[in-house]
Amino acid sequence: MNFKKTYSISELSQEFDVTTRSIRFYEDQSLLTPGRRGQTRIYTSQDRVRLKLILRGKRLGFSLAEIRELFSLWDETTSGSEKQLSLLLIKISEKRAELEQQIKDIAMVQLELDSAESRCRDALNELTTKQKQQQTE
Amino acid sequence: MNFKKTYSISELSQEFDVTTRSIRFYEDQSLLTPGRRGQTRIYTSQDRVRLKLILRGKRLGFSLAEIRELFSLWDETTSGSEKQLSLLLIKISEKRAELEQQIKDIAMVQLELDSAESRCRDALNELTTKQKQQQTE
DNA sequence: ATTCATCTTTACGTTTACGTAAACTTCCTT
DNA sequence: AAGGAAGTTTACGTAAACGTAAAGATGAAT
Question: Which of A13, A95, A100, A104 is the most buried (most CB within 10 A)?
Fold first, then answer.
């Protein structure tokens, strides 16, 4: 079902709502490495997953450089030396810490939104009850 | 205890590890409006809270424009008309949706980190067991 | 009185992440 | 054969978020 095998750049562009410019730019930054048929880029479902990961990273506010680092974290787990691997574990836990900070931040902002919403509802209530009073007077 | 009342720009700069340039830039973008004694900026604990909120927003990948929008969301809850307030409720729920998407994204990335970490540990294990074999041979 | 430390404004420079336009190829259709 | 749709490279432009001097004001300490 999900094995269409290959995608054109415009297909991916539409599916994920990004411009082809962006997709090519990500390739320029070595975040994607699609194959070619002649000049034309051909994206495998692996490439598609990569793109999905890129966009996910962006939604979290990561720069393309950081996303590239995350990718190499992943890739090097198969090929690293002992020092490399130890370093990787450190980097991984650093990323984890970032994410946990983000979770805390989100929780705080959610609280602020809660507060803003109830203030907003209160203000609305006051306005509409005043209107009713004016109507009956 | 926490009521030092006022802060200099460098105090805030050090406390939150941002440059004074950034702090002044945030003011330029109307995200901060400190008082003045002569030419010198004086920050109240309210301003300090604002700065904290700005940096929190940045950690979540929000642009300064979005952060400004969040602030005005908050501020307008006291002064808005009925239409304003209804619009605010919509915007608030939009922000909420963004945050929930971020939470999902974070969960996914955490899973990927889990996976990367165990791959990493496996690889390390193999390396060290091979070393032991070599030692005993 | 001068030397600092800290503050200020002004302004040009830089990086990131694309937007946008120009000019060209390829393939398909009419 | 001619046109159009979708792809390509090249390259200049741009908005955001600061960095980085330069040049001066202010207040405290020597």
Answer: A95
